[in-house]
Amino acid sequence: MKLKVVLHPEKEGGYSAAVPALPGCYSQGDTLDEALANIREAAEGHLEALNERQPFDPQDRSDDDVVQEIEL
After folding, report:
1. Share of the chain above pLDDT 90, in %
2. CA distances in angstroms from 14 to 31, 32, 34, 36, 72, listed in the order given
3. Radius of gyration of the chain (CA)
4. Residue 54 φ/ψ, nearest 5 degrees
């Protein structure tokens, strides 16, 4: 799985990092490499926690659900 990461240089040094596809998934690091490693770990933990809370089960969908794609 590939996820985009936004890295922001901080005025006091280091980088903050966020994964826009995973609201609430943030991290930081003193260097770019450290920030990337930390956000990778944070994203893995975030996805694991989401899966433990509410694993996807296709049988849970109602017959009224409609899935469509939109273009942005």
Report:
1. 58
2. 5, 7, 9, 11, 33
3. 16
4. -145, 75
